[in-house]
Amino acid sequence: MGLLARGLIRKFLQKFLPKITDGHFDAVLILILVIIAALTVMKHNYEESNKNKITKDILEIKKRIPSKRIISLTSQQAMIDILKPFSGSIVAIRVVTGDVDSRDLAEQLKKVFEISGWEIPYFALVANGNYRKVFIRVKDSTHAPSRTLEIQKALQKAGFGYEVSSASGLNPNEVQICIGPE
User: Fold this and answer.
1) Average pLDDT over residues 4-15
2) Domains of the chain: total
3) Given this model, what pLDDT does residue 67 score?
């Protein structure tokens, strides 16, 4: 604290406490600084608490908003008709966490594949996925497993755009549907 500020505070205190000594003045000054610091921390904690509450409220509101990407019953049946002949095939589904719309779409697709008799070895929520929209991942997109074409047909029938991408870390026979925000 600067000398000017200290002098002004001393003059202010002397109006109310004319007989204050230097030792007492320093103690009062420290007490004032501690109170100011405590009030600052309290204000910060209050603001953080409010921010967390607002964030939680927004997430709750988002949960109540219906999904934008809904597969109609007609489209679901059309997809099932395309996928059913390949019953026993395997597809994994990955979805970005925190996006309710993506999660809802993934759940709908999972249901369609299960009804069609496909196996889903895992339904993964991926925190660090940078997926956008819907895409199909295979080890090598130029030599994709044959069932990839059926998945493409089913997604087209449901009216969903998609991309096919390669992921070197996958097994040659592995197919994943990855879903992220629109």
Assistant:
1) 79
2) 2
3) 62
